[in-house]
Amino acid sequence: MFYDFSHRHSPCKVEGAADTVILSRDTRATAIIGKEYLYNGVFAPTSPVKAGDMVETEESFLVQTMRPTTERDKYCSLIKTNVTVEIQRYGQKYDRNDNPIGDPSFIAIQSDVKGFTQYVTARLRQAEAGLLPTTVYILQLQTSVDVKDPQDVALTSPDRIVMNGKPYQVDAVDRVKYPNLLHLQLSEDAR
């Protein structure tokens, strides 16, 4: 099928490597998420694309799922990114002689990380079982992003996500819901 529709091929990058995709809308839904963010992508059988990859055209997409078709094309569910975040971790800064500098604070671990976020509404709470009562946003990121689970014994305080200039606390990190993607639950950060 991929080769039968060469007139619809669009150049893209998969994890920075040049590739080709056929993009289409995923649904004819009336909700904004279906209209604006959900896409299907069909890649050639030889494409290196896999679940969790970042696909870039004029816009950026996360590959949520990937399955082969009968012709071995790679049929993917894509979600368009809508946010760039910074990941911060509570810790101490040190000089080159390992002397502490100032008081412990939140230190930037990664910046300019693209992801997909969604504000938690009553409707989303009905659709998404397992949301914590304090969750205000859910966020999807690639697994290559350094976000620690809040229960990690090495942490003195849960990680912080800075989104649109506002800090949020990471309350839950689900590594199972989407293959090769992190599904985070964020709450208002009062620290």
Count of individual beta strands: 12
* Residue windows where pLDDT falls under 50 for at least 5 positions: none
Spatial separation of the terminal alpha carbons: 53 Å
Q: What is the chain-wise order of helices and strands? A: EEHEEEEEEHEEEE
Strand content: over 45%
- Average pLDDT reading: 90
Determine the fraction of residues in helical runs and give it as a percent range.
under 10%
How large, in whole angstroms, is the Cα Rg? 19 Å
Q: Characterize the biggest β-sheet.
A: 6 strands, antiparallel, barrel
Q: Give the strand line-up of the largest sheet.
A: 1-2-3-6-5-4
Question: How many helices in DSSP terms?
Answer: 2
User: Helices and strands: which structural class?
Assistant: mainly beta
Taken from the alpha-carbon principal axes, the silhouette is globular
Secondary structure blueprint with pairings:
Layout: E1 10-14, E2 17-25, H1 32-37, E3 38-43, E4 54-56, E5 60-68, E6 74-80, E7 83-94, E8 100-119, H2 122-127, E9 137-142, E10 160-163, E11 166-174, E12 181-188
Antiparallel strand pairs: 1-2, 1-4, 2-3, 3-6, 4-5, 5-6, 7-8, 7-10, 8-9, 9-12, 10-11, 11-12
